Amino acid sequence: MYTTAFLDLPHLASACGSVQLPGSKSISNRVLLLAALSQGTTTVHDLLDSDDTRVMLQALQHMGCVVEPSAVVAGQPLRITGIDGFLPNNARGQLFLGNAGTAMRPLTAALAVLGGSFEMTGIPRMYERPIGDLVDALRQLGCKIDYLKNEGFPPLHIGQPDFSQLSDAPIQVRGDVSSQFLTSLLMALPLLATNRAITIEVVGELISKPYIHITLELLARFGITVRNDNWQRFVIPAGSRYQSPSDIHVEADASSASYFIALGAIAACDSSHNASQNGIQVLGVGKDSIQGDIRFVEAAQAMGAVVESGPNWLHISRGAWPLKAIDLDCNHIPDAAMTLAAMALYADGTTTLRNIASWRVKETDRIAAMACELRKLGATVEEGQDFIRITPPASRADWKAASIHTYDDHRVAMCFSLAAFNPTGLPVRIEDPKCVAKTFPDYFEALFSVSQASQPAPVICIDGPTASGKGTIAALVAEKLGFALLDSGALYRITGLAASRAGLDITEANAPAIADLVRSKAITFTPNHRVLLDGDDISLAIRTEEAGMNASRVAVFPAVREALLQVQRDFRRLPGLVGDGRDMGTVIFPEAPLKVYLTASAECRAERRYKQLISKGLSANMADLLADLQARDARDMHRAAAPLKPAEDALYLDNSSGTIDEAVQQVLTWWEQRQPFTTSA
Ligand SMILES: Nc1ncnc2c1ncn2[C@@H]1O[C@H](COP(=O)(O)OP(=O)(O)OP(=O)(O)O)[C@@H](O)[C@H]1O
Ligand SMILES: Nc1ccn([C@H]2C[C@H](O)[C@@H](COP(=O)(O)O)O2)c(=O)n1
């Protein structure tokens, strides 16, 4: 997941390949709560690991459920032993539920029926999301719920209910604000229906029926068959008791699929792929899905997408181009419909999405957010209380390179990534990309894995002499931008070490053998910054001064440099790369848009290197270090092959007196000056 302040998506030209989607958030959190209320242990497969499921799991553990392991581990099922309809004695606590509506609303209902003493809290946006209609419905039953701040909104306090006045009268709930209120009652009230049937009556038109369909399907899996009288009345039978189904599989998220369905419809396939590889394959959800958002497929088809499907897969390719503008009532696909707003940027006219009032009370006011950000890209947008109307930029020249504000809303971030396929060749900046953690933490990684940029990924080169600070500054710049990192010096250090371990003297005569040796070795840079040579951890061994000197000696040989050329270029990937070394800007990436030549006085470098070695527990001597460093500079600068020198278009940065942060900031400022983005509103 990208945890940077922003993520710059280079202009994307084509997309092709296969994506495995994470589990559905709606199904995951429903399954977790139902398993928690049940008798028995439920093994949950393919659970989504996201912010919303994490807060739900923590809450369930607070309620006395046994969860093993205590958090989601990739590829492993999770076992939940339920409370069989009763909280432990004196159950109490504060439950922090972030911005997870799928946790706040159903847990409020379940705990209000179960009792105990709980404070339900969240982030500030949660306190703007209405819950009054649910609380009113629960109070009809005798539940004890108090508002801790504003009437009608979380945070809440839930106390011990009094069901002495409970009658057979139907419980009424509004259905026209959020279907989560009805879902919450449907999941909580079986706890009260042990010896009487309970009827829920919907007041107003029920929105988002597909989400109620998911709830009913899952209730049935946990032993509760609810009678649905035309979406107006729901009858929970007497004698209800939650029973674990033992094993349950969470299907992939159909709304997450919408971004890749749109991608298949928008992006041409790279001509280097053959016809059979054409398009985007989505794995984990298909035509047998119980999720209403699967009907996004029909909307995408109406806009021109060509979609084939199997029980749990979809294949999407471009059909009509430009896409066809549509006018659609989106009540049946409230979440996925946001993706249509992004697709509308590529349509042949004005697209209108209607009956989307619920967008206004989601993670953010989504109608306002989409309108504002689409306008930044050059679209003309009209918004109403329950509709949005989008006319794409009139011509290529009318597209703008925008910095997209994401409002802590995962769907805004994912939708606007599709703007990177604009016809003008512009990049798109996505602010706060980590907001996708709510449903699809690795969304951007998945997007990059199937997308091809119109230009090779951007590279920032940082070259300079030994111990000038290249590695330190390069790593920090890469971290800030979410770019990959190439420590090219490490490759020469590994080569020098491999040669000595193989008993090869570093001589010109041995240069071809050393080059062959490095070609035959498996070199791995692990995500936690370890360096492996054929599986052996050599992270520390390559950091000695001797290893640095040997690196400088092998680096003189053209055959070695040739052997490492493609290895280095292969580090280039989306969204970009920072390369540190001696010839990044002159030889390896001569077309890089930013080249920095980092210097510092020899004395300053020797002193910093001294401190660096001592801090790693390696021995060092200042006088020797200074002499070695000067010898290394001389060899690196005066060798015939790719000598250390500034590229003609390099910018000089003297790192002798400033701080590390100042040097990093300078590089970032130069980078920013090369970007075309208009700033956020
Ligand atoms: N501006 C600075 N102020 C203080 N210390 C710094 C500064 N810049 C870098 N350093 C420190 O200097 C030491 C050497 O930096 P670094 O290892 O990044 O250099 P390098 O150029 O990558 O070296 P090499 O070429 O040998 O790989 C590190 O301990 C780093 O933290
Ligand atoms: N692009 C590069 C990177 C490194 N080298 C050589 C010369 C250096 O002295 C040696 C070790 O590099 P360091 O880890 O200290 O950055 O490797 C090179 O020739 N070209």
Briefly characterize the structure.
Phosphoenolpyruvate binds at residues 25, 101, 129, 180, 366, 411, 438. With 681 residues, the chain is of the alpha/beta class.
State the total count of DSSP E strands.
Answer: 33
CATH homology group of the largest domain = Enolpyruvate transferase domain
CATH C-level label of the largest domain: Alpha Beta
Level of helix content? 25-40%
Largest sheet: 5 strands, parallel
Keywords: Amino-acid biosynthesis, Aromatic amino acid biosynthesis, ATP-binding, Cytoplasm, Kinase, Nucleotide-binding, Transferase
Catalytic activity: dCMP + ATP = dCDP + ADP; CMP + ATP = CDP + ADP; 3-phosphoshikimate + phosphoenolpyruvate = 5-O-(1-carboxyvinyl)-3-phosphoshikimate + phosphate
Domain Enolpyruvate transferase: 17-447
Binding site for ATP: 464-472
Structural notes for this entry:
- It is found in: Cytoplasm.
- The active site is at 335 (proton acceptor).
- Its main location: cytoplasm.
- It is a single chain.
- The protein is of the alpha/beta class.
- The protein is built from 21 helices and 33 strands.
- β23 (403-404), α11 (410-417) and β24 form a beta-alpha-beta unit.
- α2 (51-62) packs parallel to α3 and α14 (488-501) crosses α16 (545-554).
- The longest helix is centred in the last third of the chain and has 17 residues, at 622-638.
- The two termini are 25 Å apart.
- The model has no long low-confidence stretch (mean pLDDT 95).
- Adenosine-5'-triphosphate (ATP) binds next to α13, α19 and α21.
Topology:
Blueprint: E1 6-9, E2 12-15, E3 17-20, H1 25-37, E4 41-45, H2 51-62, E5 66-68, E6 78-81, E7 92-96, H3 101-114, E8 117-121, H4 132-141, E9 145-147, E10 156-158, E11 171-174, H5 179-188, E12 198-203, H6 209-221, E13 227-229, E14 233-236, E15 247-249, H7 254-266, E16 280-283, H8 296-303, E17 306-310, E18 313-317, E19 327-329, H9 337-343, E20 351-354, H10 366-376, E21 380-383, E22 387-391, E23 403-404, H11 410-417, E24 428-431, H12 443-450, E25 451-453, E26 459-463, H13 470-481, E27 484-487, H14 488-501, H15 511-520, E28 523-525, E29 531-533, E30 536-537, H16 545-554, H17 558-569, E31 577-581, H18 584-588, E32 594-599, H19 602-615, H20 622-638, E33 651-654, H21 660-673
Parallel strand pairs: 3-16, 4-15, 7-8, 11-12, 19-20, 23-24, 26-31, 26-32, 27-31, 32-33
Antiparallel strand pairs: 1-24, 2-25, 4-6, 5-6, 8-10, 9-10, 12-14, 13-14, 16-18, 17-18, 20-22, 21-22, 28-29, 29-30
Helix pairs in contact: 1-2, 1-3, 1-6, 2-3, 3-5, 4-5, 5-6, 7-8, 9-11, 13-21, 14-15, 14-16, 15-17, 16-20, 19-20
This protein binds adenosine-5'-triphosphate (ATP) and ligand LCLUPRNS.
Residues 464, 466-472, 489, 548, 608-609, 612, 655, 658-660, 663 line the site of adenosine-5'-triphosphate.
